[in-house]
């Protein structure tokens, strides 16, 4: 890899171009040169055009071997699978498909990339910091001589979001230049970096608890854990464990003490994070009925872009499933040659084969989570092609497809634990679990084959806005027995009323609502909606007018106990931040147990009136926003430095919705200090999510997004905590963070 290889970069069957890839000496970056023919005077010589680094290893999530992408599948007849591989990037960045000159060369890159990714993932905090320092040194060392002069230092400070006057910068430079050579070498640069990044606020806390001003003894650390971190249990044992795990000095370890370096390493570690590490593990009861869980769900999963002209791709299913999504949607239409296709009907979105979608779902459903996947079918196919769909489902999925009801589950939905490794079909069904009908249902059921009709939804909303347009007719199709038999516990039915459901609905029936209809039900009968969702599954999907693939706020639907809240996973923003925040807990398995008061069919909970319930105990959340560290630049204009502010948002029942902001700090994205306290009263902490947003203040235009972090209130750790910020795509942006103090008090 460090020698370099010529490989084909493939974007489509028609676009295959040679590129020269080489791993840089830092083993953290791959760059390429594009090969182009020279001009007429070059006499058949090849010239290489330099391009900036293409790939950071930290941006690569996985490496797939063979024809495991749509692009590589399209050229499968040209290149054998053992020469092909795909680099899958974090977030929403497109894949990189490559074809090596030989199978041996492909294997070298596949194994090498996987090893590099593994090494990065296994780095501890100190190693990550060393890597980060090394990266900055290379950025600053413009001429590549392994030294950094003062001009390069000044450029570095601007790159690092630091607005420092020349006199102070020169003073730090001179102090670090131990060799008095007028330049900084490796060790001197590390010293310069340490002086630059000295955390005064952390040092102050350290000294407040240190008996001798130099170290924290076990007793000092115990006091810090009790008073600073608000911990009460096993603090003596915990203090010794912290010293053993985070203290870099062997001398201090022998004395059972912690230095400032060890203290800072602890605060920056996962244990010092705002997200309680115990909640990241799968810890919830998974043996309750499916209706008792919030389920991570995707809308029109096949789309990579908007709802009108967006690209349809099996890659979208892979990405959703690997993010822990447990309910994916498939819009099925008649295709050529008797093969059903998937696309957003009556639009210009591209089309993919239904059987390819099923293959991907079969291959990727259980890589992130073993708990069941629901395949939500929006069926627009003829009876003949429905039979083909059923054949593909049974042949490709095999035993993974749930075909029969589980024994002993005659009156309630099975649990995620019962259904481990199973794929459930959601769709129309002839009859119920109690009996099976023969033949094909004709027009009596035909009008309800599809329980979602975006065209009608758009029409309904346009009419509401006094826009005159002819309402499209629903197509009437029969339902094949073969496809019907694939549906067991998720029979799609039309919703009439909560009273009708209480009397007539079966536990295995599920209704779908557009967001606007769901909101109306919440407003008119919130407690009834919650009660309905204690026994039956409900799916909420975006209004049809969201043609840009924007999302609604899922928290509103979770507050009513709706389990399957389907979002456009391809669209970044606050809504997906909330979804990611909720489902990060419990092992990212895609299922989160609802609070007890939302699971009971005997009791009533009204999200509009949360105080009317047993066990009502509001809490006060106090957040002291202390400082920020190494915030990324959002404006790449030379000399531009961010003016950061922090906004804290509470998302929950209507009474809990709140937001507060700090002031902005002028020209400092490197180590801004706020020391501001924000206080919130939360009435239903079990449903609340807390979102931290950092923005670049602009008094004339909308603030620019810098980073965010969202987590359930129930997963907060009290005390001094770091918040490791995420990008708009939800990927980490190390070492950017916030430093806060969290305190939770029962009562108001």
Automatic annotation (TrEMBL):
One of its GO terms (cellular component) is plasma membrane. Substrate binds at residues 9-36, 426, 428, 512, 539. It is a peripheral membrane protein. It is found in: Cytoplasm; Endoplasmic reticulum; Membrane; Nucleus. Its main location: cytoplasm. Residues 451-460 have a biased composition (Acidic residues). Residues 451-475 are annotated as: Disordered. Ca(2+) 4 binds at residues 641, 643, 667. Glycans are attached at residue 179. Residues 1-118 form the PH domain. Its cofactor is Ca(2+). PANTHER family: 1-PHOSPHATIDYLINOSITOL 4,5-BISPHOSPHATE PHOSPHODIESTERASE DELTA-4 (PTHR10336:SF31), PHOSPHOINOSITIDE-SPECIFIC PHOSPHOLIPASE C FAMILY PROTEIN (PTHR10336). This is Phosphoinositide phospholipase C. It comes from Astyanax mexicanus.
